[in-house]
Amino acid sequence: MIGYDGEWRTVKKASTAQGPMGGIAVVVTWEENGAARFPAGDELLVREPDAD
Question: Which pTM was predicted?
Answer without folding.
Answer: 0.68
